[in-house]
# Entry
Amino acid sequence: MSFIQSVRFNKKYFTYNQACNWLKKYKIKPIKPVDETKNWYRFRIEEPDYKNYYYRTKVVEKGKLHFIIGFRRKRGRKRKR
# Structure
């Protein structure tokens, strides 16, 4: 099972309003206000759960948009540190 944990928008290509409209268009509802850095707007969709899931970044549209995707850990396997 996988899910979208966060969506990041590159500020070079998206304004804050464009990012919000994109999320609204695809019916993605953030759980918190935006986290903003120098280059990115990040909208958290789910709280991270590092005990039960591991996360990977899927780059879309040549770096304009990133999806942080959570994947369930297999039971019985020890977590790498």
Q: What stands out?
A: Helices lie at 16-25. The radius of gyration is 14 Å. Residues 16-25 form the longest helix (10 residues). Residues 2-72 form one domain.
